[in-house]
Amino acid sequence: xxxxxxxxxxxxxxxxxxxxxxxxxxxxxxxxxxxxxxxxxxxxxxxxxxxxxxxxxxxxxxxxxxxxxxxxxxxxxxxxxxxxxxxxxxxxxxxxxxxxxxxxxxxxxxxxxxxxxxxxxxxxxxxxxxxxxxxxxxxxxxxxxxxxxxxxxxxxxxxxxxxxxxxxxxxxxxxxxxxxxxxxxxxxxxxxxxxxxxxxxxxxxxxxxxxxxxxxxxxxxxxxxxxxxxxxxxxxxxxxxxxxxxxxxxxxxxxxxxxxxxxxxxxxxxxxxxxxxxxxxxxxxxxxxxxxxxxxxxxxxxxxxxxxxxxxxxxxxxxxxxxxxxx
Length: 327
Prior knowledge:
Layout: E1 5-7, H1 11-18, E2 25-28, E3 36-39, E4 44-50, H2 56-59, E5 62-69, E6 93-95, E7 113-118, E8 120-127, E9 130-138, E10 176-187, E11 193-203, E12 217-218, E13 220-221, H3 223-229, H4 236-253, E14 255-259, H5 278-287, H6 300-326
Parallel strand pairs: 2-5, 5-11, 6-11
Antiparallel strand pairs: 1-3, 1-8, 4-5, 4-7, 7-10, 8-9, 9-14, 10-11, 10-13, 11-12
Protein name: Hmces protein
Keywords: Covalent protein-DNA linkage, DNA damage, DNA-binding, Hydrolase, Lyase, Protease
Family: Belongs to the SOS response-associated peptidase family.
């Protein structure tokens, strides 16, 4: 958790999201981003980060770049060792509770924080031995569409910023801002390779609607907490408590959860049907004619009614025949 998402944001929209209220935002690697309604780890996702620089002005520049979802640490000898699909370690999620004591995550907490953008993500809700796929996204009325340029202190994070104008490309609802950590791995040897990759932080979903679905949830960022999360001058130890508090509040009040079709269970299915509410998906299938094979069995009362109607028609036919003969 979170291990499957929907991503249809264009590169230009990602840049506008990252550069709310002015400022400079670069866009790099957008050709690696693919519009997918069913996307898993090892794919590339849009990441907002603060550019590393020596000067104060450079440190305030932001960049949107495509990073592999599934972090490969800089000290790794081989990238394959951190590919869960090839028997390596699973690093597409990181538990926030143990991050400060982890050799893998601790070195990234202050200087390599980032914001991962998603339309929404999927989770499977258990019902005994069966699981129901659910889609989680921001509510339509939520106005957190861009990240302010100026970060706020931890005391200011409770305040709500001014809503921004909605963009037209991609989903109409505001995208999810997820707290992430990134790293840069360099392959040594004859063939040089650089890989930028990212992990998504997760937390306990207690006292939110997410606790009914799964025992973990992403650390959700609001526009205000996202700005502070991207500020390398704010220590992790100072920001994490208000960030988690706001994440919990966001999950409880701003998220929309609904059931989707089992179509999403197969990661090869990437069509827009994956994010349709289950009822709308079923209606769409019926409209295509597929549903005629699954029509519900009529009730006994309906069968009796049809039988009476048929008998009435037969009696009427007999009367009509009598009339014709008399004429």
